[in-house]
Design goal:
Layout lengths: L2 H23 L1 H4 L2 H7 E8 L5 E3 H7 L17 E11 L2 E10 L2 E10 L8 E10 L5
Parallel strand pairs: 1-6
Antiparallel strand pairs: 1-2, 3-4, 4-5, 5-6
């Protein structure tokens, strides 16, 4: 693969992971187990801003009730992302970092997205959220 086509592929991979991350922040996806299941890797793990560790099944069961559901898309608070950036760590692995604001609560977030051989879609493999104290920049 030429250097230009490799850069183009890496840009496409990062953009696909960003698109998938934004889908997971969408209240319509957060309240749909079927939609969320397509975006989470079966080996998914999250360490939430509360410090709680979540597995794939735990997250799918709880996601509709967690923050950011936006009242089933009918208004309500939702995560507002900013400063989203990504880098390809290896073929099939993208690392995203960004910040969110949820009703005045800020968090710095990090996600690993994985696309396995033979699969076309990206799935979130790992996610961590760290609260940002009000006094922090």
């Amino acid at each position: 693969m030429s250097q230009i086509s490799q850069i183009s592929q890496e840009t496409a991979d990062v953009n696909a992971a960003i698109d998938a991350e934004l889908q997971l922040l969408d209240p319509a996806v957060r309240t749909s187990r079927a939609l969320a299941a397509r975006l989470l890797d079966p080996e998914f793990v999250e360490v939430g801003a509360s410090g709680r560790r979540w597995t794939y099944e735990e997250m799918l069961a709880a996601l509709p009730e967690l923050d950011g559901g936006g009242g089933n898309g009918e208004g309500g608070s939702r995560f507002e992302p900013s400063r989203m950036a990504g880098v390809v760590l290896a073929p099939g692995i993208v690392h995203l970092t960004y910040e969110t604001d949820f009703g005045g609560r800020r968090a710095r977030r990090s996600s690993l997205w994985r696309r396995r051989d033979g699969e076309t879609g990206w799935r979130m493999y790992y996610h961590q959220a760290t609260p940002v104290p009000a006094a922090a920049e």
